[in-house]
Automatic annotation (TrEMBL):
InterPro entries for this protein: Acyl_transf_3_dom, Acyltransferase_3
Pfam family, one: Acyl_transf_3
Organism from which the protein derives: Clathrospora elynae
Domain of life: Eukaryota
GO MF annotation terms: acyltransferase activity, transferring groups other than amino-acyl groups
Keywords, sorted A to Z: Membrane, Transmembrane, Transmembrane helix
Segments traversing the membrane: 12-31, 51-72, 104-124, 173-195, 207-235, 247-267, 337-358, 379-398
Acyltransferase domain residues: 7-354
Name of this chain's protein: Acyltransferase 3 domain-containing protein
């Protein structure tokens, strides 16, 4: 895989991608861990406790993806604006906005094609009969004719971006929001390139309050808008403090911020009333938001934002996130996000349920019952193998497919600009000058 400069924001994106996979594994195999306890009178499991629950909870990771989108897409225009290089700022925004769609849509289309192909070669047959409700919901039938299969592929490829849902991979529901979030960044940057930094900060504040009160729609308010705005705010801080950012606050403060943020980000997905700490958090947020607001998204946003700020001001945290392991996680974060659900429904399901599938359980009437998973040891071995296969395939994706997508986007944009065509190998995840983020996050 081609080398890529390490940076802490890439490492953070890699952590978020890993958390999303862990959260979906939890939903598939041990969904009861999403609650802070079985009930108000039962002691919690280790991974239901604050901090530990982040290992199996991926919701706050989605907030991190939006924070990263706001940060990375705005950092260049803000720097040029502050330097008074307004023409370069406008040019950069125009080029990024044009290329951004292709850099998200082309890899997503490829991932959809893969899961469509597996479904229509009956590779998901086993998922229809497993005892995991989440995996079973991801089942898609094998279409009876080639024409119907092609039509279902067309619908999946288009509806991911039009209605926000993909019948073959439900985890792609966030991708159109990432694209919208990027356009929100470009629009805000375009409108504020000529203003002074203090005026732009005021714009951020107004936008933040606007999105806060739109909490009835989680995608518009707490999930997308608030995180995008905070990401742009941190990019503003980056251009203000530059290399001195890690020496602004006393050493313990960033660490405390990270710890506090991790606690808040652990707000449970289900049944917060089952533990005193989460029930208290629920009451606090209900008093600060609208009647129909999804308060889970608000706590996800606040926790992830505090963690991001803590890392931004922490030299040690940045050093950890630029280590080789986290650099690798960041490089493969987008294909991991795109492929993990497909691999859960195929590779992981095959490994966990194969013994039961070889001798399917039946009731007294001879009707087949849900396939049963193997022993705990069997499941842990299967998960370890699943992670290896997933990240190995993601690395191959970055090495072989990303350059193709990058060349296609570059060729299309150069044609649009009327520039001469030149062959240029550029990874989709590369930190180029026109588009510096690939998310997904998530």
């Amino acid at each position: 895989m081609a080398p890529r400069d390490a940076n802490w924001i890439d490492g953070l994106r890699g952590v978020a991608s890993f958390m999303v996979v862990g959260g979906h594994l939890c939903t598939a195999l041990v969904p009861w861990l999403h609650a802070p306890a079985a009930d108000a009178k039962t002691a919690p499991h280790l991974f239901q406790l604050p901090f530990f629950r982040l290992v199996v909870g991926g919701r706050s990771a989605v907030a991190i993806f939006f924070l990263v989108t706001g940060y990375v897409n705005s950092i260049g225009p803000i720097g040029k604006s502050r330097a008074g290089n307004h023409d370069a700022a406008f040019t950069g925004i125009a080029r990024s906005a044009l290329a951004r769609s292709g850099r998200l849509i082309l890899p997503t289309m490829a991932a959809t094609f893969i899961t469509w192909f597996l479904a229509n070669t009956n590779a998901y047959h086993m998922t229809k009969h497993v005892d995991s409700q989440w995996i079973r919901q991801g089942w898609h039938r094998q279409e009876p004719t080639i024409w119907m299969a092609l039509m279902s592929l067309f619908r999946a490829e288009t509806e991911t971006w039009t209605v926000g849902w993909n019948d073959y991979d439900g985890t792609q529901w966030t991708l159109h929001l990432f694209l919208e979030g990027s356009m929100l960044v470009y629009t805000t940057m375009f409108a504020t390139v000529l203003v002074k930094p203090k005026a732009r900060m005021l714009v951020y504040a107004v936008l933040y309050l606007y999105f806060w009160q739109m909490g009835e729609g989680l995608a518009i308010g707490a999930l997308k808008g608030l995180n995008i705005i905070v990401g742009m705010f941190v990019a503003e801080l980056h251009n203000h403090y530059k290399d001195s950012a890690t020496s602004v606050l006393p050493a313990p403060v960033p660490a405390i911020m990270i710890v506090v943020g991790m606690f808040i980000a652990g707000y449970p997905q289900d049944s917060p009333q089952n533990a005193y700490w989460s029930h208290t958090m629920a009451k606090i947020m209900h008093s600060l938001t609208g009647e129909k607001a999804d308060i889970r998204r608000y706590w996800d946003h606040i926790g992830a934002s505090i963690v991001l700020l803590g890392i931004f001001f922490s030299r040690n945290a940045r050093k950890v996130l630029t280590s080789p392991v986290f650099n690798f996680l960041g490089r493969v974060s987008f294909p991991v996000y795109l492929l993990h659900n497909t691999f859960i429904k195929s590779v992981l399901t095959w490994m966990i349920y194969l013994p039961s599938a070889m001798n399917p359980p039946r009731n007294e009437k001879g009707e087949q019952q849900d396939l049963q998973r193997g022993s705990t040891t069997h499941i842990f071995i299967a998960i370890a193998a699943f992670y290896y296969i997933l990240y190995r395939c993601a690395a191959l994706w970055v090495k072989h497919l990303d350059p193709i997508f990058g060349n296609l986007v570059n060729a299309a944009t150069k044609w649009a600009y009327g520039e001469p065509q030149q062959r240029e190998a550029r990874p989709i995840l590369g930190n180029g000058s026109t588009d510096k983020t690939t998310v997904l996050p998530s």
